[in-house]
Structures are given as structure tokens and as C-alpha cells.
Write a structure and sequence with these properties.
By secondary structure, this protein is of the alpha/beta class. It has a single domain, classed as 3-Layer(aba) Sandwich (Rossmann fold). Helix content is 39%, strand content 21%. A seven-stranded mixed sheet has the order 3-2-1-4-5-7-6, sandwiched between helices. Helix 4 links the parallel strand 1 and strand 2. The longest helix has 18 residues.
């Protein structure tokens, strides 16, 4: 695999952040590939090694909670799914609407010898696919949408007993309460919150029963009209 110009800088930044030594090289190569591809079309808002390294490090914070089979929605440039797959070698299913991004993710799986698949579809549609619905032990969605929106898109894919892993930042108390209420509507319950510092935290929503077939609502509605918010 060809090293990109950002590779060495990323390696230094990841080492300085305390990333496990065995993971630094593959993660730096992945980050370099993201930045190189970003020059051709937009994968992520981070345009430099210094801007991208925190996204890689942040992705690794979900690793302790991930169980197989694992799904990630709105995968974009591969965060957190690709770093998680590199760190754990779990099989990953990524759901990404944009075809160019989906193709990038497929190529990345192949280049890094990772097990998984990419589904180029809206989450609202994929969630109603019998092959996917209620099939995953854990799932992530590193999204900027409201917490209830993320829960509505992710929980239908999680099996009873599994866990939705939400990476959140600076949510107001009103949104936290809305997530609690929405989770109950979707067949889940908030199990724990782990503070990461700088306003970041991981919220675990345990799936306690099946999600009603009416969820998620049709395309665009979960984001436009979040449950309970």
C-alpha cells in the first residue's frame, strides 16, 4: 500500500495521543488514504493530519462496547467503523447513502483486509430490510443529528439484548430526556453514560424488545421531526 504525504505526521500524532503501538501504523495509513481521497471529493471536513487525528482517536473510544455482528450507519469517510474494524477485526456492516463514499469504504475494506460489507442506502430504507433489521449485537452512528434521531435510525437494526452506542457532545438536558423517552418508544432503554472529557460522552442504549415496524419513519422525517424533542 502506497504511503501518502500525511502518513508520517499522522503516525506521530497517533503515537502522541497514546494509541496502542500495534494500531498506529494501519490507522495512519487509513488516515492518509482519507486525506488523499478528500482531495478528489469530500469525505470529511478534516483536511489536514492534525485535523483528522482526533477523529481517529475518538473512533477508538467505542471499541470497548462493540460486539459482533456490528453495524455503523452514516459511515461517511469510515468513522468510527474503519478504525473499530482495524482495532478489533470484527466484521462490520456500513450503511452509507452517498455512492462515492460507499465505494471508498468498499475499497478500504479490501485494501486493509477487513471483513464486512457496505450498503449504499438510506438508513430509513435499510432499517426495513429483513436481512438487516434486528440482526446486530452492537451499532454506532457518529452523527451530528439529534440523539432521538440517531436512536430512531439505529435501534431498529439492533437485536434484543444488543446495544446502540451513541457518541454525543454537549447535548442539553432537554435532548437527554428526549433520548430517554424516544428509546422507550423504540424498544430500548438508556443503560449508561461514559464521560470522555471536553463535553464528549458515550451513551449506551440497550435494546430490551423489538422496535415497532413503523420505525424508522419515512426518509427524512426522523431528522426533520425528532421523536420526543
Amino acid at each position: 500500500m502506497i504511503e501518502t504525504p500525511a502518513h508520517d505526521e499522522l503516525r506521530e500524532l497517533l503515537e502522541a495521543a497514546g494509541v496502542e503501538a500495534a494500531l498506529v501504523e494501519p490507522l495512519a495509513r487509513f488516515g492518509g488514504r482519507v486525506l488523499e481521497t478528500n482531495r478528489r471529493f469530500n469525505l470529511t471536513g478534516a483536511k489536514t493530519a492534525a485535523g483528522l487525528a482526533p477523529h481517529i482517536v475518538d473512533s477508538l473510544t467505542v471499541v470497548p462496547f462493540v460486539r459482533e455482528p456490528y453495524v455503523d450507519i452514516g459511515s461517511g469517510g469510515g468513522f468510527p467503523a474503519i478504525p473499530v474494524a482495524i482495532a478489533t477485526r470484527v466484521r462490520v456492516t456500513m450503511i452509507e447513502t452517498t455512492v462515492k463514499k460507499a465505494n471508498f469504504l468498499r475499497e478500504t475494506l479490501e485494501l486493509f483486509g477487513l471483513s464486512g460489507e457496505v450498503i449504499a442506502e438510506r438508513a430509513e430504507v435499510a432499517d426495513h430490510d429483513e436481512r438487516l433489521r434486528g440482526r446486530f449485537a452492537s451499532g454506532t452512528a457518529r452523527a451530528v443529528s439529534s440523539a432521538p434521531t440517531v436512536a430512531e435510525l439505529l435501534l431498529p437494526l439492533i437485536e434484543t439484548g444488543g446495544v446502540a452506542i451513541l457518541q454525543r457532545r454537549n447535548d442539553e438536558e432537554r435532548e437527554r430526556q428526549a433520548l430517554d423517552d424516544a428509546s422507550l418508544m423504540l424498544g430500548g432503554t438508556i443503560e449508561s453514560e461514559t464521560e470522555l472529557g471536553d463535553g464528549r460522552r458515550i451513551v449506551l442504549v440497550r435494546k430490551t424488545g423489538p422496535t415497532q415496524i413503523r420505525f424508522p419513519r419515512r426518509t427524512g422525517i426522523p431528522e426533520k421531526r425528532p421523536l420526543c424533542l
